[in-house]
Amino acid sequence: MEEQQLKQLLSSLSLIEKVGQLVQLSGEFFKTDSLVVGPLQKLGISEEILGNVGSVLNVAGSKKTHEIQKEYLEKSKHKIPLLFMGDVIYGYRTIFPIPLGLGATWNPDLIFEAYKVIGEEARLSGLNVTFAPMVDLVRDARWGRCLESTGEDQYLNSEFAKKMVAGLQYNLENQHGIASCVKHFAAYGAVEAGREYNTVDMSERRLRETYLPAYHSAITAGSKMVMTSFNTYDGVPVTANKYLLKQILRNEWRFDGVIISDYAAVSELIDHGVASNDAEATSLAINASVDIDMKSPCYANELIQLIEQGKIRESQINEAVWRVLKLKNELGLFENPYQGASCEATNIFNNENARSLALKVARESIVLLQNKNQILPLVPNKQKILIVGPYADNPSLIGLWAVYGKKEETVTILKGLTKYQKPDLLFYESGCSILNKTDELGEFGSAANFQEKLVWDNQKRNAHLEKALSLGEIADVIIFALGEHTMQSGEAGSRTEISLPKNQKQFVKKLMALKKQTILLCVSGRPLVLTDEVKQFDAILQLWFPGTEGGNAVADVLFGQTNPSGRLSMSFPYHVGQSPVYYNHFKTGRPLGKSNHSNRFVSKFIDSPVSPLFPFGYGLSYSQVKYSKLSVDVLEQQILIHVSVENQSSRDCYETIQCYIQDVSASVVRPVLELKRFKKIFLPANKKEDVLFSLTLEDLKFYRQDMTFDFESGQFIAFIGPNSRDTLEVSFEI
Ligand code: GLC
C-alpha cells in the first residue's frame, strides 16, 4: 500500500481500532491452541478490542494461521491483517544446534546460511515475525538462557547477530524469509546470580561497552522489531525505561521500528513496584515508547481511559499504531495477508538441503574438550563399542526452545553410530535415566515425570545398570551420552548446581571400574562443571543440544570424517562458585601471579582456581597447529598483525585463529584481553599459512572516564592463538 493510503487508513481508525493494533494475544483468544510459553491468565479484554487485536502470539502452521486470518478479516471493518509472531530461535522444523553451539562454530557466514533456511521454513508456517535472534551476552552459566545466546563476547556476538538478522530477513522485500525481532533489550543476560527474571544493575560504561553492541549490530543489520527484557536497568524495569528505549534505542540509534514488550512485562511493572495498577503500568510503558503489549490486559483495558483523562496524548498512540501499520505494509500483508501460509509448496520442511546444512552446522558446533592418548578418532569396525546413557538413543537432542520441531525427525546418537559400526560391534544400553528426582525440575518435575517416566524404581535402575556393566565387560570402548534434562536449561531453567545430574555421575563411577577406554558426549544448554569428568574420561566432546542431525554429526566427529573445529564461545567454570567467570575480565590491583603481595593477599579463591576449567575460544582438533612469527606493524591508519600457523599433522583441519588486544594502561581499567578479530581458515595437512589481521584506531576505542568513546595512545599487547589462554604475545606502542 502507498504511504499516503496508509496514512489515510490510520486517520480513519477509531480509538478502539487503534488500541487494538497495540495488543498481542495468544491462540486461545482465537479459538485455537498455541504454545504455552508463559503464565496463562484471563485478561478481561472487551469484545471490541478482541475484534481489533493487531497480532497473534505463538500460533504457527499454515492451516491454523490461514483460518484465523481469514475469519478475522471477514469480520474486520478496515481489513487490517493480523501479524503472526512466534519463537523460532534456532529452527522451525529443521532444528539447528542451540545458539551456544552456533557460537562455537565461530562461522558467522555459515550461520547466515542456516538462518536463511530457518527464516524460509518459519515463513511457510504462516509466521510473519520471529522473536530472534536473542543476543543477550552471557557470563553466568547458572542462567538457563545461556542456551539461546552465542556467548560471552560482544565482538563475536555482534558478528553472529548481524548474520542471523540478515539470514532471517533474506529477500524479505520479495516475500521471502521472516521479520526478525531482536531480544531481549537489554542486558537480560546479566541477571544477578544467574537467577531467572532477577535484577540487572551495572555501570553505563559496562552496559555500553559489553552488553549493548550485539543489539546495535542486529538493529544496524535491519532487525524490524525489538523486544524489551524482563529485568531492570539502573533501578527502572526496561519496559518502562525511557533511558534505554527512548534515549538510546530511538534517539541515539535512530530505531523507528516496533518495540514489543516481553510476555506480560507491561503488567509486571506492578510486581516490580514502579506502578500501583494497570493504568500506571500502561502509562509508563507507552511513555517509554513500547508499541505492543504482549499478553497483558494493560494497553487493551487502560489506554483509552488514559487518553480521555489527558494522561497520555492520542498522538502517542498514533505513533505506535503507525509503526505497527508500517511493519504490516512492509511485509506485504495488505496485498497478501496469508503470506507463506498460502504457499502450496511441497517438501518445504526438513528437506534434504535443510538437513544437510543442519548437519554441517552441527559438525562445526561440536567442541573437542579432551582427547587423552589421542583415543579419538575411532576406527570403524575395529573395536567393540558400547554406547550408553540417557542421551544414547534419545531424540531430545533438539533442546527446549525448538518449539515447532518434531523429536521423531531427530537422528539419535545411536542411529548416527550405525553409519560406521557394524551391528555385532555396537552395543546399546540406556543404563540410567536423565534424572532420578523430579524436584530437580522444580514445578515442571511432576509433569515431566508423568510424560517421560523420569524416575526409575530400584528394580529398573538395577536391571539397566547390570545390563550396562555386562555389555561394558565385552566392549573395548564405552561412549557415555550424558547431560542435563532439556527443562534444566532455557527460560526459567536457572540452576545453582551445574554439574551432570547426580544419578548419572554415580552411574559413571560404577562403569569406570571396568577400566575401559571411555568417551563422554556432553549434552547441555550451558557450560557444565566437568571438573570430575576431565579426570575420569579419556575424551570429552561438548555437543550442546546439536539439533535434528545431531546423531550424524557426533558420529562423523567420533570416527574422524569430521576433524572437530568447534571453539567455546563461553567459559566453562572449574566450580560453580566462580560464576560469573569470563575471559575479558579486569586485572584488579592484586592480580594473581603478577602482584607484589604474597600469594595470600591477591585476587583469588582459597578453594578453587581463578581461571575456568576451559577458557573462552578453547577447543581441540585431531591436528596439531603451531603458531609462530607474531609481529605487529603500526602504520598511520592501521595496525597490521602477522602470524604464521602450521598444520603439523597429516590431517586437514579448520583452525580458528583468534586476535586479542590488551590496552595496558588507560584512564579507566581495561580488560586483560579483548577479542578484536578472528579467522577460521582451512589448513591442509602439513601446510603453513601466513595470516594477517588489520585493525584501526576505531577498534581500540572505549568509554573513557568522561564517557566519551575514544582511543588513548600508549602501550598495547597483541595476543594471537587458538584460544584466549594459549597465545603468543607482542607489545606495541601507539
Ligand atoms: C517468553 C520469553 C521470550 C519469548 C516470549 C514469547 O517469556 O522471555 O524470549 O519470545 O515469551 O514467547
Explain briefly what this protein structure is.
By secondary structure, the chain is of the alpha/beta class. It is built from 21 helices and 25 strands.
Give a structural overview.
By secondary structure, the chain is α/β, with parallel strands linked by helices. Among the domains are: 1-84 and 260-269 and 282-340, TIM Barrel (Alpha-Beta Barrel), CATH 3.20.20.300; 350-569, 3-Layer(aba) Sandwich (Rossmann fold), CATH 3.40.50.1700; 623-733, Immunoglobulin-like, CATH 2.60.40.10. It contains 21 helices and 25 strands. The protein has an 8-stranded parallel β-sheet. It has a 6-stranded mixed β-sheet with strand order 11-16-15-14-12-13.
Quickly list its features.
18% strand; 734 residues; Immunoglobulin-like; alpha/beta; 8-stranded parallel beta sheet; binds alpha-D-glucopyranose; TIM Barrel; 6-stranded mixed beta sheet; Rossmann fold
